UniProtKB/TrEMBL annotation:
Residue ranges constituting the CxC1-like cysteine cluster associated with KDZ transposases domain according to the UniProt record: 36-122
Name the UniProt record assigns to this protein: CxC1-like cysteine cluster associated with KDZ transposases domain-containing protein
Organismal lineage: Eukaryota, Fungi, Dikarya, Basidiomycota, Agaricomycotina
Keywords tagged on the record: Signal
Signal peptide limits: 1-27
Native source organism of the sequence: Crucibulum laeve
InterPro entries given in the database record: CxC1
Length: 134
């Protein structure tokens, strides 16, 4: 089962998501501004039969989407699915970018957390100065 899931991610889902993600990066100034893409489901149905819990910095929200192209529809609204087919959980790509920056900074301490936060905000064109956001 895990091998089939890896195969689906690597040969179907990720290649289909890559152009959408690149467009999302472009339109959102590298994820610094919220930008959603319009994407219709593949079947053309208006039936939204899949309930997905979406995790973001703002909290949890539930999205109803069509199950035919769930990963594509989720990415178009800025969320990455937790599974390739019929996901029930998705995470904000901005949050994933932040967590990636945190792991790049490395050391498991407060300094790493602060460095990651400052770098993340810097990439979004914010600047921290003496405890204030400029």
């Amino acid at each position: 089962k895990k091998e089939m899931q890896w195969h689906r991610w690597s040969t179907e889902i990720i290649p289909a998501l890559l152009p959408i993600f690149l467009e999302l990066l472009h339109l959102s100034d590298n994820l610094c501004t919220i930008s959603h893409l319009q994407q219709e489901c593949e079947c053309g149905s208006n039936i939204k039969d899949l309930r997905v819990v979406c995790v973001s910095f703002g909290g949890l929200e539930t999205q109803l989407i069509c199950s035919c192209s769930a990963a594509i529809q989720l990415l178009c609204i800025g969320f990455f699915p937790a599974s390739p087919l019929h996901p029930t959980l998705a995470v904000d790509v901005n949050m994933l970018d932040f967590v990636n920056e945190l792991f790049v900074c490395g050391a498991p301490n407060n300094t790493a957390w602060c460095n990651a936060l400052e770098e993340f905000l810097r990439q979004c064109k914010y600047q921290l100065d003496k405890g204030h956001v400029l």
